[in-house]
Every structure is written in structure tokens, then in C-alpha cells.
Amino acid sequence: MKYFFKIFLILNLIWGSSCQNEPVEPDLKATAAPAYFNLSAFISEQAELLQASQVKVKKTITALPDSPETKVLQNINWEQELETFTQADINKPALRAAYDVTTSPTTNGQTKTIYRQRAGYRDTPVEYLEVITSADKQVVAVTGRHRENNYLVKSGKNFSLRCAPVNGKNRIVAYRISGTQKTIFFDPLQYTVQGDIQ
Hints:
Number of helices: 4
Distance between the termini: 24 Å
Shape: globular
Structural class: alpha+beta
Oligomer: single chain
Helix content: 10-25%
């Protein structure tokens, strides 16, 4: 029971409140800005794939100062489970001028693209997003940082996922979310959620 209460608490913290700061409106150059990586569409496709595959996940939750707790779960709502990543999507009209984009090759033939928040857009919740793709344009890894700061909540969380070919399809094989959250009502909470998909 304690485990599932902890899951409920952390998931609510991860999903965040609806009182997020509105991003600064982009300037006229927004229409010329390139589209960013569509993280929301990618996660939606992955959620459908994982749901159809009926995979299990070895999930470890740590909420300090408690010890880590691990469970193997199968009946997962993957859209909800991966909600943190969907919320970190920066491919939105209001954000089209909010990020600098740098792309560079890696030593193993992959491509690393980093989307970093511009100085004039400090109210955007995603500070940066890094996407690594393979030579055939398949997603290998995604990492980033999301923050929220309003009169009720001050939080920051790092998120990452890894993908690999499974049964001929590229899919998420592991994900991790870690962060801190401080509300006006409770002490700061430090948490980590690690999922290894089987």
C-alpha cells in the first residue's frame, strides 16, 4: 500500500500543476524559425507501441529519505506513464523562436541535436532538450530538463529515455525522471523514477 501511495504522490508531482507560467510570445521572426523535434508525436507513437506489446516494466521509485522500492508492473497506461516527456514537447507555435538549435555528429555515426532556451524566453518550462538519432534517423536517446516556478510550486526535473530495436521496431527500453519539488505546504521532496522495460 505504501508503494502505491508513493506512486500516486510522485506521479502527481511529475505531471505538475496546471498553473504554469505562460511562455513569452515569440517575435515576428518566429515564422522563419525551424520546427523542433516533435517529442509529443514521438511519445504518442511509443505509447501505442508499448500498449500493444503488453510489455512489463521494472519500476524503481525513490523518494528521499525513504529507501528505493521496486515493482514489476504490466498493466500500464503508457500515455500517463510517459506524460513528463509529452509535457516537455517544445514543438509548439508559441515556442518557435524560443530555442537555439545546434546539431553535431557523434563519433559513432549518430547525430546529436540540442535545443537550448534563448535568453529572452526564460519563462518557457523546458530549459533544454537533447535528441540523439541514428544514421537511419531513429531516436536513440532523449534527455532534458523541465522546471516550474509559480506561487504554489517550485520544481525542477531531469528526464531521459533510451531506445533500441526490439522485434524489428525501435522503441523505448528505459526511462528516468528525477527532480525536486517544493510547495508552500510541504517540505522539499527529492524523487527518482527509473523504468526498465522488459
